[in-house]
Design brief:
SDR family oxidoreductase, oxidoreductase activity, oxidoreductase, SDR_fam, NAD(P)-bd_dom_sf
Length: 226
């Protein structure tokens, strides 16, 4: 209902939108076995179901304007990591959703793009680094994959993708190579996890993180109220 209201307000103030970006995202960390089912579901509700609701609210406008819908995905869409099961599942889901939507609306002149983003300097990522298990997740990645990018730089890249109606945009650009080799990632991640997780368990460092960042906590509070 809130998205429908936002779509209506956008039309009244600015006219029919020709570009829509589905960007809302929250994250929790920790083992799946001990995760709170409601918190796990909340991540999927915001990241995946919320993206679908965004598309549903604005799709009539995009059909009228032959517009462009950009779905924000993640490196997690290409390769899942341990301790982030809800986030990885939701980001894999938004990738599949965007591919499906693209196939449905292409003949109507609507373009659908997917943005694959790595670590961005936001409150969510800064908060994640406070938790040993998530900090280890990032620091065990190859050096180029550990780097964070400023939100302004990423936004500029996304604007260029919007202007060109890209079907895919990668930030950083080398994520294209991950796309090509994504089938090789699960065994590599599993091998690394078998080596590192026992040590983290022994250090009692595998507890749940709760919602990450101010945005995640605000989303959690909103979900609790509803």
């Amino acid at each position: 209902a809130a998205l429908a209201d936002a779509a209506g307000e956008t039309r009244r103030r600015l006219g029919k939108p020709s570009v829509v970006v589905a960007n809302a995202g929250v994250a929790h960390g920790g083992p799946f076995a001990t995760s709170d089912p409601a918190e796990w579901r909340r991540v999927v509700d915001v990241n995946l179901t919320g993206s679908a609701h965004t598309a549903r609210a604005f799709l009539p406008d995009l059909l009228d304007t032959a517009g462009y819908h950009l779905q924000i995905a993640s490196l997690a869409s290409l390769g899942a990591a341990p301790m982030m099961s809800a986030y990885c599942a939701s980001k894999a889901g938004v990738e599949a959703f965007a591919h499906s939507l693209r196939a449905e609306v292409a003949h109507r002149g609507v373009a659908v793009g997917i943005a694959y983003l790595n670590w961005i300097d936001t409150d969510m990522i800064r908060d994640a680094d406070r938790h040993p298990v998530l900090r280890e997740l990032r620091t065990h990645m190859p050096p180029p994959a550990r780097r964070t990018f400023s939100a302004d730089d990423v936004a500029a890249r996304l604007v260029r993708a919007l202007e060109r109606r890209r079907s895919a945009v990668y930030v950083p650009g080398w994520l294209r190579l991950v796309q090509l080799g994504r089938a090789s990632l699960p065994p590599v991640v599993a091998r690394l996890s078998r080596r590192e997780l026992p040590r983290l368990e022994a250090e009692d460092a595998l507890g749940p993180t709760g919602p990450l960042g101010e945005g995640g906590r605000a989303g959690h509070a909103a979900g609790t109220r509803t």
